[in-house]
Amino acid sequence: MEATITTWALEFIHWFAVFIGGFGVVITILPSPIFGFLGRFKHLLLFHFLAVAVRFLFGAALLYTASQTKIPEVVTILGYISIAAGGVLMLIGRNRFIRLIAWVARLTPLVHVVVGLVTVAFAVLVLYAYH
Asked: Is residue 117 a part of any domain in this protein?
């Protein structure tokens, strides 16, 4: 079977949603190590680059494949939001990105649990849209 851009985009979306869902479950159950990890690595340029690049790639994949989903309007909106988030993270610069991650890491454990639950809900929505 020949791999096409659509195939790659669908696979990327599927595995990214599974990863994000698993990440959300871990955050919900045990948030401290995850947010501690974010706090420790916030200074790495690679971390900032990946935060931007993954949002651009995920958003582009969502937009490219939205017509093949159960809820194309919602997926299109999510694609634009993902690309906009990547743009914002790119434009705020390194120092503000580091401060943003430090702020998120310092939030209360209850907020971390809510973030985990929202992350799981997002992953479930994406997986539902594509299956």
From this structure: yes
- DSSP class of residue 3 equals -
Structural domain includes residue 14: no
Helix (H) or strand (E) holding 128: helix 109-130
Q: Are 52 and 89 in contact (CB under 8 A)?
A: yes
Give 87-119 pLDDT, tens digit per residue: 999 999 999 999 999 998 888 889 989 999 999
- CA dist 78 and 97 (Å) reads 22
Measured in residues, the chain has a length of 131
Number of structural domains in the chain? 1
Q: 109 burial class (0-12, 13-18, 19+ CB within 10 angstroms)? A: exposed
Cα torsion 44, 37, 102, 115: sign: positive
